[in-house]
Every structure is written in structure tokens, then in C-alpha cells.
Amino acid sequence: MKRIPYLLLAFVFFMSCKNEKETKEVIKVQYPETAKVDHVDTYFGEEVKDPYRWLEDDRSEETEDWVKRQNAVTQDYLANIPYREKLKERLSKLWNYEKVGAPFIEGDYTYFYKNDGLQNQYVIYRYKNDADPSTAEVFLDPNTFKEDGTISLGGTSFSKNGKILAYSISEGGSDWRKILVMDVESKKIVEDTLVDIKFSGMSWYKNEGFYYSSYDKPEGSELSAKTDQHKVYYHKLRTPQSEDELIYGGTPEQKHRYIYGGVTEDDRYLIITPRVSTSGNKLLIKDLTKPNSDFVTILDHTDSDSNIIENVGSKLYIMTNLNAPNQKIVTVDASDPTPENWVDFIPETENVLSPSTGGGYFFAEYMVDAVSKVLQYDYDGKLIREVELPGVGSAGGFGAKKEDKELYYSFTNYVTPGSIYKYDIEKGTSELFRKPEIDFNPEDYESNQVFYTSKDGTKVPMIITHKKGLELNGKNPTILYGYGGFNISLTPSFSITNAIWMEQGGIYAVPNLRGGGEYGKAWHDAGTQQKKQNVFDDFIAAAEYLIENNYTSSDYLAIRGGSNGGLLVGATMTQRPDLMKVALPAVGVLDMLRYHTFTAGAGWAYDYGTAEDSKEMFEYLKGYSPVHNVKNGTSYPATMVTTGDHDDRVVPAHSFKFAAELQAKQTGDNPTLIRIETDAGHGAGTPVSKTIEQYADIYGFTLFNMGFKTLPNQDFKD
């Protein structure tokens, strides 16, 4: 591939037709040449060209060279934004406050997570249970794993007596994990590292060992090759991994894409939840008190999401959406646990239930139009009280061990930084435990929920947050953020990056699109497979609402989303390129004909369907697949695609191919760039330093392409 100059700058000035906007500086970009190949796939007799198929090879020198050249163009462009460094400085300053997690007891120690401010990764501290918290010492510091913070801490799991810790690490943001086992008293590693582990928890059986899940190492690149058969293993403490016992998933009959194993708190039962997709699971149970006992099948189909959340002896408490789209809890005896014997314990309501247990009680958290409501029940199903929350927003963390007398929960919303409250389980009283000291005043901002009408008449909620007193003149820079998939709910939460945006006079709007979980299984299913267009229509209608009500206009609107939300942005900008000024698809699923051929992508078929399912499904997917719907001669919004070179959840080839299509077919002056983070994955564990740099680039790019020569608000506090 021929090398060409990275960036040609041409400064073009123009005035809007009403002379309302400042002259805008346009940077003409000359993109790196992207080779095309004559690759064709045939689906149900129809040939589909894939000219950038070579970019799927993440191990090739050609792909590596393309990534370097694209990043060079992007960084050259961003260097011309005059306030990029100012945004980075402000992000760093606001980010630099102490963040402390809720304490939790394991064995003789109380532990908590803490970040001094700008540390790349959170550090685990501890103190003796009867000691003053001021005596806390560093227990495990992931910042020491690698100097640049690109090796992060994944999960942690303590043995039942708290004397041994198993913890996982991720290198470069990959979903592949290693597990290390530590003696907590000496802080020394006590055995060889377990390797090649993916999509796994670590669930201890007594103090003897733990269950985990993984796949066989795939052929080809571990960052993109398909992983299809998940397996559950038992690792006995201080034995080599080669001797780990295969528990479930090793036969063709037991083949599933995701299988998780967990032990009940009393060590009596092993619970197995095999899944073929991200929605729906089978449910099996094994009595660990009986040597060589067989698994008992509770559910032999994947028509529901069901799991055992508690047991008292052989009495099981099962959370399920089987014939209950908004979830309920049922009880049944383990001796005969199939659904015909289930008895309602906490029945289904009109709101979606997310239960937890602690201190001998059940806590039923409900979403009421995406806002938290929490009820406390005893083990007989009697309502004890509604938990009085600090305000309107999102509460979480109502979980504790059975013997605990108190628990800690978090509370946040779009204008309230996350605070921790201590809850007396018997008395039902809350007290503020820790409030962050942050240079942000919630009283200066407001957050309001509206309901708008989508294309087919469906009412959709949206929360709009901005500075108080903001003039609705259609000129406010606005980010419309969405997800709309996989039963995931977007509930109000504070974000440092959003605070910076709103500090600049920006509006941050979040609609609760179909495909999410805000209104249960029916709401989720209404945005899946051949109903996926509902999600895009909901998002488009949200943008139109903001414009019609003068919050913003197309010249000041940016759309943003990640992963499935990246698909949302890609589909919306290709269907309605006129609607927004800036598009920001992050780590997106953008090639809908091939997503299922990479890593664990086939497990997303419940939401998407696949191009092999049927001619109708193929045509539907091709009809909105962003990679396949970039049209020649179209003026697309200013676009910055973002991804990570170690993203093995949604492989970066999606973003590579989409960016290549845009660069080849874009008409007009709007830039179409791709920013590829190195040693970074799908997002989890990304070092703070990289996150700050990324958001400075994203916000700088967005405001610059909305025509701002200077920051809307330059009155930063020193």
C-alpha cells in the first residue's frame, strides 16, 4: 500500500445562511489509502462484496500499518483543535478527587477499594475488623502490575474463611484472564497462575477450591477467533491447573456458549446456568453434600432468565422471568424443583424486579421509569418496609452476608456524584457514610424526565440534564446517548466526563430505548431481531424531540453510544445523516453479517439474529448493517470512530471496515476519523490516563465540528 501525506490543511471560511454562526475552520483531511480486495460472500443466492475483509486479520503487518497511519491522521487533525489541551487539563483536575468504595468484610479484615484521584487503577486497602479504619494498609495495588496501567484487576473472590484470595487480571483490556491465588496474611502468591480463562467468575467451595469457566484456546488469533463451547472447571487449591476437574460443558450435549457455576452461601449446592445466548438459560443444581451426586435439571430450556439467589436448607428461592416478563421470585424444594412446583414468593408487578439478599432479608429493587425503588421483605415474604432513599436516582448494592447487621449501598443520579450510605438492616435507617469531595456543585444543574412518542406511537422516557437557566434557543451543544439492547437498563448515574460536558453549557440526554431492560422482557424483545429498527426509530425520535423543543438543532447535536450503542449510532447516522452534526460510535457492532463469526459474537443472536438464519433475517440485517449502508455521494456527519486494538468482545475489525467505508464514500468537508487506542479493549480496566485523553479528544472533536473556535465556557476554576 502506497504511503501518502497524512494531512493537508486547507482553511475554508463560510457563513451560515442567517449569519448566526461564527466562521468555521474546516480542516481538509487526506486519508490513508485503504486497499480493496475482491472478496465476495454469498447469502441465499445474493452476492455481498467485502472489500475490506483483510482488515479482519488483527495479526497482519498490513493491518498494523493501517492502524498506525489512521492514528497518525487522527492525531494530526486533533492537534489543530485549540482547546484540546484545555479540556484535558480540566478533565484531569475534576477527576483528581479521592474515590472510595463501600467496605466489605472477609475473614479477619475489612476491605475497600480506593483511588487517590488520578491513579490508573483502584487499589484495595484493608484493616483489621476491630481496628480503626485510619490504620488501613494497601493490600493489592493493580497499578504495580504494569507501569502504564494496562494490566488491570478483573474479579476477586475470597475463600469462605477469608484466608485465601483468588483474583483475575486482564492484559491490555482483553477478555482473556489469568487467575492468581494469594495468601491474604502474607500477601504471597501460593500457587502457579491459572491461564486462558474467559467470561468467568470464581466461586469458592468452602476453603478447598473454586469453580471457574473458560473455553479451549481457539485456533488463530485469540483476540478474534471464535470461542463457542464454554466449560466449568473446579480448581482444587494448591494443585496444578492441568489437574482441574471438568464439571460441565465437555460433551456435545452440554455445549453452550456461556456456562457459569456458583456455590450457594451455605456450600450446599452448585448451581449451573448454561446459555446459548446472552438472554435465556437452563438451570441445573448439584447437591455438594452428597458425594458423586448427579445434576438435577430445574429448567431444560432457555426460554427464561432464571437463577437461584438464595436457599434455606433444601428450600430454593429462584428469580425468574418465566411467564413473568418483569421478574418475580418463587420458592421450591430442591427434591422436586421443576416449574410446576414453583410457588410465588414475591410476585411479578408492573415494574422490573432486581432482587438481592443480606442480613436475613430480601431487598427487592424496582425500576419505576428507570428510577430506583427498594422494598425489604423477610424470608416469609412479608413486606417489612420501603427503604427511604436519599433522592430520585439509582440505588445499588443492597447485598450482604446472612449474618451481617448492616449493609452499604450507593446512590447517584446525573447531577449527584455517587455517595455511599450505611443501612441498618433491622431498623431500616440510612446514614451517609461517604460523600466525595469533588469540584462540582449539583445545585447548578437540573435533570428532568420527559416522555416522547416514537415512530409507531410508543411512549419512550428520556432524562435531559443541563445547567439551570439554560436558554432553549436551539444552539446548545447536545450529546444524545443511547444503548437499546441486551436487556440492559440505562439508569441515572453521575459521570465526571458528563460533568465536563455540562460545565461547557452542554446538554446530556439519555432515552430509555426499546431493546433495553427498563420495562422488562417485553420492552427488551420489542427491540430485537426483526424488530431492531424500533431501537433506531426511538433514537431518531429522541433527537427530533430535542430539536423540536429547541434544546438543540442538527448543527449542535452529537449522537454517541458504545458496543451495541455503537451499532445504534452507526445505523442512525447512515439512515439519517442529516439529523446530527457529529457521530461518535464507540467499539461498535457494525458488520451485522459477520459479527457472529468472531470471539463470542454468536451469543448475541437472541438480540440480532444471524445472516445464516433465513433469507428474511439476512435481508433485514443487511438493510441496517452500518458497514453495508454507507452510500457514495452522501454527506455524513463529522464522525470519530473509537475502538481498542485489544477489544476481543467487539473486535476492532467492525470499526476498521466502517471507517474505511466512510472515508471512501464521504462527500463534503465533514471529517471521518478513527481513533484506535493501543493496549486497550472493550472498556473495562482502561487506565484513567487513557480515558482522560480519549474524552478530551472526543469533546474537542465534537465542539470543534459544531463550530466552536473557543470553549463555550472558559471560566474554569483554578
TrEMBL record:
Its EC number is 3.4.21.26. Residues 32-435 form the Peptidase S9A N-terminal domain. GO terms for biological process: proteolysis. InterPro entries: AB_hydrolase_fold, Pept_S9_AS, Pept_S9A_N, Peptidase_S9_cat, Peptidase_S9A, Prolyl_oligopep/macrocyclase. Residues 492-703 form the Peptidase S9 prolyl oligopeptidase catalytic domain. Belongs to the peptidase S9A family. This is prolyl oligopeptidase.
